[in-house]
Write a structure and sequence with these properties.
Its main location: cytoplasm. The protein has 431 residues and is α/β, with parallel strands linked by helices. The chain is 35% helix and 16% strand. Helix 10 crosses helix 12. Bound molecules: uridine-5'-diphosphate-xylopyranose.
Length: 431
């Protein structure tokens, strides 16, 4: 079956054609097709596993394939041509940028996104750009990549700056989304001192900037501030259960002190703050070697390798799709809610169950694309990492009451889209 038949339905069974919300006098909705056209490039859209057949599509055929998924937006695609004989890629710049809203100056915000070239940041940048804002991305490219936002380079509303937030940065802006920090346990543990320095000094610098410019400041906190929780599900008034000297502490405690700093600046200096506690999130543009569970499982299953469950697989997580998170972040920034808000999906899985779900979805997508069934991949067990939380599920009552926000994407729908994204990267030789 070709991707043209992909339809995405929300938890109530209604088709999802737009993402974003109409809240607080601000309509942040954009068509899903437009977003997809930014992360599923034309040669990524494939209908079989024969790499030569894919790359030999003429431009017109490739556009037609792509149009099935992102109807009407092929004009705005960069053409990246893969040459299998030499394993090289030829990139072109966009001939035209996707149309962005023409906002009156009074509504157009100057938005700074730290970590804007990361997984979450790049999806936020896509939204803010399409909505007509002026966006500056700060990134040191430690875990982020220029390719995630390269489709906006050259646009008059967009600026990309290589900068590490541990150093001060000056700019005039109206809003700051502070996302900069490695988020995957193997990445944030590889240089623990740098991680805590980023959380502390990076947040200090950005709060200083918010104080000077009177910008509204949103910091990306995490479910990890609850540690290995004794309260389930986790609501925002729970203070958490964190090992302050364990290998995860650089991140958990770093984010906790970032929250403390944020509310210090609010009380002391009147800075207008927002705190999003983000639960496990996945989606396209996650680095395939990021090391977190969703990307690991999908890439392993696609490559026919053993899927690695840590421990006995009875620990739980609740996974949210990237578009739901971005809806929540934009709604929170626009709202009057200055208390911390959990942004996450309440659908909880044991990691063992989740491995089986991912395996089943990968097999389904492969069958639809005519890939002959090979040997079923095995699920194997590896040692449990130290201090790995045993359970995690957000209580999102506050997000519902204060933001009118609830997640719409089911794990099945989100994983299926992410499988297609990685499958295409694999076919291109990019995995
Ligand atoms: O290959 C793998 C990877 C991970 N896992 C397990 O899957 C669970 C989830 O692990 P992840 O690494 O994806 O994420 P964690 O929940 O441990 O941490 C995450 O929490 C929320 C965010 O702030 C961060 O993105 C990240 O720190 C853990 O129990 C982990 O042990 C596997 O079983 N196999």
């Amino acid at each position: 079956m070709s991707p043209s038949y992909i339809k995405t339905f929300d938890k109530e069974g209604n088709e999802i054609t737009t993402v974003g919300l109409d809240r607080f006098g601000f309509d942040s909705r954009v068509p899903l097709d437009v977003l997809r056209s930014l992360y599923l490039r034309s040669h990524y859209i494939i209908s079989n596993n024969d790499t030569k057949a894919i790359v030999n599509l003429s431009d017109k055929e490739a556009e037609a394939e792509h149009a099935k998924l992102s109807s009407g937006y092929t004009l705005f695609q960069p053409t990246s041509i893969y040459f299998p004989e030499t394993a090289s890629v030829s990139y072109s710049t966009l001939s035209r940028f996707p149309p962005v809203k023409l906002l009156p100056l009074s509504q157009r915000k100057r938005v700074l996104v730290t970590g804007g070239a990361g997984f979450v940041g790049s999806h936020l940048v896509d939204r803010l750009m399409l909505l007509g804002h002026e966006v500056t991305v700060l990134d040191n490219f430690f875990t982020g990549s220029k390719t995630t936002v390269s489709h906006w380079v050259g646009h008059p509303n967009f600026e990309l700056v290589r900068h590490d937030v541990v150093e001060p940065f000056m700019i005039e802006c109206d809003q700051i989304y502070h996302l900069a920090c490695p988020a995957s346990p193997p990445h944030y543990q590889v240089n623990a001192v740098k991680t805590i320095k980023t959380s502390f000094m990076g947040t200090l610098n950005m709060l200083g900037l918010a104080k000077r410019t009177k910008a509204r400041f949103l910091t990306s906190s995490t479910s990890e501030i609850y540690g290995d929780p004794e309260v389930h599900p986790q609501h925002e008034d729970y203070w958490g259960h964190v090992n302050p000297i364990g290998p995860r502490a650089c991140y958990d405690e770093g984010k906790r002190v970032a929250e403390t700093l944020t509310y210090g600046f609010q009380r002391q200096d009147g800075v207008d703050v927002r705190v999003a506690r983000i639960f496990n999130t996945y989606g396209p543009r996650m680095n395939p070697y990021d090391g977190r569970v969703v990307s690991n499982f999908i890439v392993q299953a696609l490559k026919g390798e053993d899927m690695t469950v840590y421990g006995d697989g009875t620990q739980t997580r609740s996974f949210q799709y990237i578009h739901d998170l971005i809806d929540g972040l934009i709604a929170l920034m626009g709202s009057d809610e200055s208390r911390p808000v959990n942004i996450g999906n309440g659908d909880e899985f044991t990691i063992g169950e989740f491995a089986e779900l991912v395996r089943e979805i990968v097999e389904k997508v492969q069958a639809e694309d005519g890939i002959p069934h090979q040997k079923r991949v095995e699920i194997v067990h590896k040692p449990m990492p130290t201090d790995d939380p045993q359970k995690r599920r957000p209580d999102t009552t506050r997000a519902k009451q204060s933001l009118g926000w609830q997640p719409r994407w089911t794990a099945r729908m989100g994983i299926e889209e992410m499988v297609r994204y990685y499958k295409a990267k694999l076919a291109e030789g990019d995995l």
